[in-house]
Amino acid sequence: MQATAASGAASLDSAAAAVTPAISLQNVVKTFGEFTAVKGLDLDIRQGEFFSLLGPSGSGKTTVLRMIAGFELPSSGRLDLAGRDVTRKAPFERDVNTVFQDYALFPHLSVAENVGYGLKLRRTSRGDRRRLVAEALEMIRLPHVADRLPSQLSGGQRQRVALARALVLRPQVLLLDEPLGALDKQLREQMQVELKQIQRTVGITFVFVTHDQEEALTLSDRVAVFNEGLVEQVGTPEDLYERPSSRFVASFLGNTNLVEGELARGLTGSDALLSIRPERIQIRQPDEPLESAGMSSVEAVIEEVVYTGPSTRFVARTSAGQKLIVQEQNDSRASSARRGDRVRLEWSSRFNYTV
Ligand code: ADP
Ligand code: MG
After folding, report:
1. pLDDT tens digit string along 33-58?
2. Which atom of ligand 1 sits closest to the CA of residue 35?
3. What's this model's pTM, rounded to 2 decimal places?
4. Where does CATH 2.40.50.140 sit in the chain?
5. Is the CB of 58 under 6 A from ligand 1?
6. What is the Cα–Cα distance from 95 to 171, expressed in whole angstroms?
7. Of 75, 133, 187, 261, which residue is most buried, by most CB within 10 angstroms?
8. Which among 82-91, 148-157, 280-289 has the top mean pLDDT?
9. DSSP states of 189-229 as a string?
10. Which residue's CA is the closest to the ligand 1 atom numbered 22?
11. Over pLDDT 90: what percentage of the chain?
12. Which of the ligands is closest to the CA of residue 53?
């Protein structure tokens, strides 16, 4: 009888833990003098989530990250970590660690000493330290550079060491401020894959700041889209891309066709602004019949054809002057439309998305 009651209580506790957000911001405002950088932010980040703060430069992402870390205090509002109010707590009183874009490794310490530095401050024993550092270097797949100095590493390697130095302390939350920003495109894409794998392995909550929409879509479980100190939308990459809630989100995440006025009324019977993604539109001959019911269609002239390797981008214009971009994969069904051709553009009406 007693055993039943105890296990009942235990499962209630774990259920509560599962729904307590790792990070919760409630009506958080941050002003610098007259300027309001963060305008009343409500945001819950779940435990174990890869969560990105995405937005243009100056939209308040770093300020939010610095408030979570405790480097800045909110002007008003409340911040909880794992259900505990830390609004006025110092950085070292929070189970949070930060990786910055500029690595900030100690130049005179070896890689192993850099990674073990925080453990040393925590008075972790020498033996445990050696083991934990070796594990962390293994995780970032750089076990062979333990004795080198940071100056003897490439940019990508330095960034991985900075990551190991943060991970070795096993924080509940890892904050990353544009950590891949300084790397070239190829290395950045490779590091994105590794970062995601590491996050999955360690199960720590990652909060990742980026202004790169592709990076945010690739990495994240969920994304908050920032615009001028406010969050415009929070959702999975698919939510944001397929079902943007505003003109800003629709155009910030990838290319889109924004349609209003006469054409919008013709397509949906309403004046509301539409977002139609270029890859949803197909190019047909003007006299070809509609593929099926439930399709939207408009006649247009091809103005521009841009070959980009795996795909081709067409710029088309309707007789009413509406420009529409079409993005086609260069597979066996690719259109052979050329500049000046009269065509009919066709897409499923469910891709007329009101924003
Ligand atoms: P992001 O990381 O999205 O580029 P930031 O959070 O760094 O944006 O900055 C948001 C706004 O707040 C910017 O206009 C920036 O100039 C301003 N800001 C940030 N920190 C300070 C500060 N310490 N003093 C004054 N203004 C600041
Ligand atoms: Mg920033």
Report:
1. 999 999 999 999 999 999 999 999 99
2. 26
3. 0.87
4. 259-354
5. yes
6. 5
7. 133
8. 82-91
9. HHHHHHHHHHHHHH--EEEEEES-HHHHHHH-SEEEEEETT
10. 32
11. 75
12. 1
